């Protein structure tokens, strides 16, 4: 995993858009974002991911492959949808099995922080955390998605309604209470 501020240049979102210097993983802590590493080639990796899932009360998972060959004609529409800023009512947990991509998240100052993920990275984004996702220039990522209930992916796109939603308010309150961040 590599973390840095997104350069906000309008070029292809599959490019790294990196800025110097890179940020430490601790930069994600105030945002409630967790990171783990479980090498998919390790014989114990799946058991470790299952243990984490049980600790977080996750009971289901599926595997998604995002690539032109896996998604066919729907690929372009799907990556545009994933890259539109949104949040979810549930945590988003992704264990990267193959390939690479980027989670962009909003920090306390509403700046984009880019989290570059690859094989073995497991990222937990809290419910109510604005983010977007994009594959890297190889146009391929395979990830396990973990769910507390039945598999679903429902994006709530950023806007006035999501700002007023209970999930967003709970995220901001938890962030302020757990990490000492003052809200404006």
How would you sum up this structure, described in words?
It is built from 5 helices and 10 strands. The model has no long low-confidence stretch (mean pLDDT 92). 23% of the residues lie in helices and 32% in strands. The chain has helices spanning 45-55, 68-71, 75-83, 160-164, 166-179; strands spanning 2-5, 34-37, 60-66, 86-87, 92-106, 112-118, 121-125, 131-135, 141-147, 156-157. The strands form 2 sheets. Strands 1, 2, 3, 5, 6, 7, 8 and 9 form an 8-stranded antiparallel beta sheet that branches. The longest helix is centred in the last third of the chain and has 14 residues, at 166-179. It is globular and about 40 Å long. With 184 residues, it is an alpha+beta fold.
Summary of the model, kept short:
It is built from five helices and ten strands.
Cα-based radius of gyration, to the nearest Å = 16 Å
Net shape: globular
Query: How much strand?
Result: 25-35%
**What is the H-and-E element order?**
EEHEHHEEEEEEEHH
Query: What are the segments in which pLDDT stays under 50 over at least 5 consecutive residues?
Result: none
Q: Which structural class do you get from the secondary structure elements? A: alpha+beta
What's the N-to-C terminus distance? 31 Å
């Amino acid at each position: 995993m590599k973390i840095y501020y997104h350069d906000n240049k309008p070029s292809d979102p599959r490019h790294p858009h990196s800025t110097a210097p890179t940020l430490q993983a601790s930069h994600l802590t105030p945002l409630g974002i967790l990171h783990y590493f479980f090498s998919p080639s390790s014989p114990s990796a799946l058991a470790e991911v299952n243990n984490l899932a049980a600790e977080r009360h996750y009971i289901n998972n599926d595997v998604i492959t995002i690539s032109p060959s896996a998604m066919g004609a729907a690929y372009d529409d799907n990556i545009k949808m994933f890259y539109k800023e949104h949040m979810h009512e549930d945590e988003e947990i992704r264990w990267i099995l193959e390939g690479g991509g980027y989670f962009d998240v909003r920090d306390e100052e509403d700046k984009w922080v880019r989290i570059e993920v690859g094989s073995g990275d497991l990222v937990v984004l809290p419910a109510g955390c604005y983010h977007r996702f994009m594959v890297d220039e190889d146009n391929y990522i395979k990830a396990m998605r973990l769910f507390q209930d039945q598999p679903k992916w429902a994006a709530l796109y950023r806007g006035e309604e999501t700002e007023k939603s209970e999930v967003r308010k709970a995220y901001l309150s938890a962030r302020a209470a757990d990490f000492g961040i003052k809200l404006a």
